[in-house]
Amino acid sequence: MIIGEHVYFGSWDHYLYKFNKKTGEYIWKYQLSGGSDSGSPISGEGKIFLPVGGGTFRCLNPETKTVEWTPQLTGKMYNVTPGYHDGNVFLSCLNGRGLGGIPIGAEVFNVNASNGELNWTFNGGGGLTGPVIGDNNRVYFASTVTPYFYCVDRNGNGDGTTNLLWKVRMDNKVEESVPAIYNGKIYILNSGGYLVCIK
């Protein structure tokens, strides 16, 4: 991830690193208390939105290395790349695992980027797949617990919920793949090994 003149990346040694992007000069490292796994940090509003393998998510100030907020959501696994758009952070979470480590629940959350307060929750989507945000006030994501691809209203209803606008059944669920939007179409790699294109 690049912010201004610096590049940031996590590591399985449980640190987030900051370097000068042109010279490679080491600036600092930040203790994550967990490894960087499936999720990548992203930036918005000059902040770092940072998932860590397991149940940790932080909004980090890249200049002071101070945590500005963590979402007040318990029992979640934030092991996937979040999304950011227009003052909102979109988190994809696992709720737990069943026999053999199979995910049994997943949710997508919209939280305020300034303070981490919850705006809305959508149950069933997300998991080990992240959301992407279109320029049409819509949020798109697959699911690690169902074979569906979802489209919901970015703004929500003001009561902690949002509207499902449509869903498409694929042949399999999605793990560790984040959708991409290009030229009016969405592309997503599912667990069956297929690249799916949705208009």
What do these coordinates show?
The chain starts with a strand and ends with a strand. The relative contact order is 0.11. The chain is mostly beta strands. The strands form five sheets. The protein has a four-stranded antiparallel β-sheet with strand order 1-2-3-4, with no helix packed on it. Strands 5-6-7-8 form a four-stranded antiparallel β-sheet, with no helix packed on it. The chain has a four-stranded antiparallel β-sheet with strand order 9-10-11-12, with no helix packed on it. The protein has strands at residues 2-3, 6-10, 15-20, 26-31, 42-44, 47-52, 56-60, 67-69, 83-85, 88-97, 103-112, 118-123, 132-133, 138-141, 148-153, 164-169, 180-182, 185-189, 195-198. It is built from no helices and 19 strands. The model has no long low-confidence stretch (mean pLDDT 90). A hairpin with a 2-residue loop joins strand 9 and strand 10 (88-97).
